[in-house]
Prior knowledge:
Elements: H1 2-48, H2 51-55, H3 59-68, H4 73-98, H5 106-116, H6 118-121, H7 126-133, H8 137-160, H9 165-189, H10 201-236, H11 238-252, H12 256-275, H13 277-314, H14 321-347, H15 351-376, H16 378-395, H17 401-415
Amino acid sequence: MKYFxxxxxxxxxxxxRMVVGLFVGVWIARYLGPEQYGLLSYAGSFVGLFTIxxxxxxxxxxxxxxxxxxxxxxxxxxxxxxxxxxxxxGVLTVLAITVVFTSNDTYTNTLVFIIASATVFQSLxxxxxxxxxxxxxxxxxxxxxxxxxxSSVVKIILILMEAPLVAFAWVVLFDSFVLxxxxxxxxxxxxxxxxxWRFEKSTAELLLKESWPLILSGSVLIIQSRIDxxxxxxxxxxxxxxxxxxxxKLIEVFGFIPMLLKSTFFPSIQHAKxxxxxxxxxxxxxxxxxxxxxxxxxxxPIFIFAEPMVVLLYGNAYxxxxxxxxxxxxxxxxxxxxxxxxxxILSENLLKFSLITMVLGTVANIVLNYFWIxxxxxxxxxxxTIVSFTVTVFLVDIFHTKARQxxxxxFNSMVTFYKLRLEK
Length: 424
C-alpha cells in the first residue's frame, strides 16, 4: 500500500498536468497561430536535442545509489547537483556553437537561449531523486502542482494581455525556476539543508562511468523524438512545424497509457520468467494483445474524426493539421507495441541490442526526413517516423536470433487480440 500510495500521487499529478496542459496549450496555439506556435515549438525541440548533456543520464543511477546507502545522500546529491550544473552550462556553450550552422535569425536564437537557460534551474531537480529514494513522491507531486498552477496562470495572463511570442519562452524559464524553488522548499520542510551537500570527485567519476550508456541511449531517443520538428523548420518553415506540433500534442495525451500498463504488468511478467517459461510467454502474449487492443480503441476514432477534432480545439487556422493527426494515430501503433516490446527487452537483458535498433531507426528517420520533408512537408516527417519505428521495433529484430521469436509473438498478438485473457 505504501508503494501504491506513492505511485498514485505521481499518477494524479500526470493526469492533472495532461488536462490542464491540453487546455492551456490549445489556448496558446490558437492565440499564437500556426507560424508563431511553430517557431516556439521549434525552439523547444532544438533545445531538447541537447538536454541529455545537462541530465548526464544520472537520474536512475543516483536514485539507485540513494536507496542502497541512505547515509550518503549529501554526497550523492551534492555531486549530482554540481555535475548537472556543469552540464547545463555545457548545453549553453554547445548551443552557442551549433546555432552558427543553422538558418536561425537573431529572434529565433533568443527564444532558443531563453528556453535553454531553464536547464540551470533543473540542476536542483536532484532533490526529486531524494524523494523518490525515500518513497515520498507526494512532495514531488506538490512541487509540480505549484509549478503547474503558477505557469498556467501566467500563460493565461499573457494571452489576455496579448503578449509577444518571446514572453511564452520566458514562461518556460519561469516554470523551471518555480519547480526548483518548490523542490527546495519541501526539502527544507523535511529538515534537510543544501549546505550539507558536498562534491566528491571519486563519486562523480563513478556516476559518470555508469551513466555513459544511458547518455548514449538517451541522446538517440531524444534525437529520434525531436529531430522532425527541427528539420521541418529548416526545410519547410515555421507554419509546418505549427501544424505538426498541435497534432503531436494531441497524440502525446495518450502516451502515458502504455507506460502505465508496463509499470502495472511488468512485475508479473518478471515473476513468471523466474517460475515458468510457458507462463512467461503467455503473459507476454496477453500483454502485447492488450496494447494492440488499446491502440485500436484509441486510434480508430482519432483517425476517423481527426480533422473536426483539430478544428474544434484549435480553430480553422489549424485545419491542415487534421490529416497529420490522422497519420499520428497510425504512429500510436508503434508507441504501444514499442513500449510492450521493451518489457521483453528488459526481461531478456537485450539493452545493448535495443540501443543498436534505436540508432538504426534514428538514422533511417533523419535520412528519410531529408528526402521526404522537401516534397511532402509535415506528412513526409510523420511517414519517416513511422518507417523509423518499423525499423526499431520490428525489422532489425528479425535478424537477431533471440529477438526474432518475439517479433513472431508480436504479430501473433495482432491477429489474436480478441483472445486476450487477463489473469485475476
